[in-house]
Recover the amino acids of this structure.
């Protein structure tokens, strides 16, 4: 795609916080340093008991009037927190960006994302995401998140989230899809769900191999990075133990709710994937193969086949 950057495009940044006083100011400073300056911040706090709210209020006072909006969150977990914030901000801007409280953004994050998103077809949902540089609590570099090279498709999205929400920037069409999800439905992860919704509609997904986020790793991470063999093995163990089965159950309920917006091909994939989880071994493996589902790594695909055999899909 050709790069198309427009200075005038407004981006609504969606920041969710909870007891984030230790690193929040650094993240806010990185927003202030963006080369793309036309943005508004929607920040929602989920019941912090530290100085998080006070830091947000001070930032609101320091920025131009009307650039920072503050809300109280629903206190139903991080996924619903981000979903509620997307619904608050929906239709305010042509572009949106998820933001975590303890990361650091590269100054060109928004500008780079907009170059892709503006090149996508305007009538399609579009999502920019990518790799991250990992840092510890002191800001020391720890390496990079895995490089994924397989294409971003619905068959991948059904069984794997391509990238962290902290890397995601998306257009209004994609945000509207997210806002169709009812708040009473259990959500595994807002970023995984967005990837599924965009690919289900055959929208545009751009995965950037160049990291533009410093993703901080510390004991209070809600979801840690998948950057080494031990971390990957732990996630595969969750898959085999049955956590993956419950995640898929929740995801399918959400996707069935909006599947009329999917392409016929992807509705068929979803139907076969759901059916494969309810039948005997031979039929299950037949339907599993028919869906074409895959993960981004060799080890992940081995675990996926094992989960299918064991009925843990």
């Amino acid at each position: 795609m050709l790069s198309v950057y427009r200075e005038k495009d407004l981006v609504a940044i969606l920041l969710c916080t909870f007891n984030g006083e230790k690193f929040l100011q650094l993240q806010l400073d990185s927003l202030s340093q963006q080369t793309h300056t036309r943005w508004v911040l929607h920040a929602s706090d989920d019941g912090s008991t530290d100085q998080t709210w006070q830091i947000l209020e001070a930032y609101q006072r320091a920025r131009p009037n009307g650039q920072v909006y503050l809300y109280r969150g629903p206190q139903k977990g991080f996924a619903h927190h981000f979903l509620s914030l997307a619904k608050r901000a929906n239709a305010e801007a042509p572009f949106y960006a998820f933001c975590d409280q303890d990361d650091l953004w590269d100054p060109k994050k928004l500008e780079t994302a907009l170059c892709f998103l503006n090149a996508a077809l305007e009538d399609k949902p579009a999502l920019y995401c990518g790799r991250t540089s990992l840092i510890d609590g002191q800001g020391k570099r720890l390496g990079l998140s895995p490089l994924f090279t397989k294409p971003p498709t619905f068959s991948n999205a059904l069984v794997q989230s391509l990238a962290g929400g902290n890397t995601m920037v998306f257009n209004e069409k994609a945000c509207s899809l997210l806002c169709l999800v009812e708040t009473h439905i259990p959500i595994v992860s807002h970023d995984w769900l967005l990837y599924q919704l965009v690919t289900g509609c055959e929208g545009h997904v751009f995965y950037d191999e160049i990291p533009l986020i410093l993703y901080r790793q510390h004991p209070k991470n809600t979801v840690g990075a998948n950057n080494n063999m031990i971390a990957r093995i732990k996630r595969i163990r969750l898959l085999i133990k049955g956590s993956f089965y419950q995640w898929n159950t929740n995801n399918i309920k959400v996707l069935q709710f909006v599947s009329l917006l999917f392409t016929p091909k992807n509705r068929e994939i979803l139907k076969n994937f759901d059916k494969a989880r309810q039948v005997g071994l031979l039929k299950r493996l037949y339907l599993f193969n028919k869906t074409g589902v895959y993960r981004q790594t060799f080890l992940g695909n081995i675990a996926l086949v094992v989960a299918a055999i064991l009925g843990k899909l």
Observations:
- The mean pLDDT is 92.
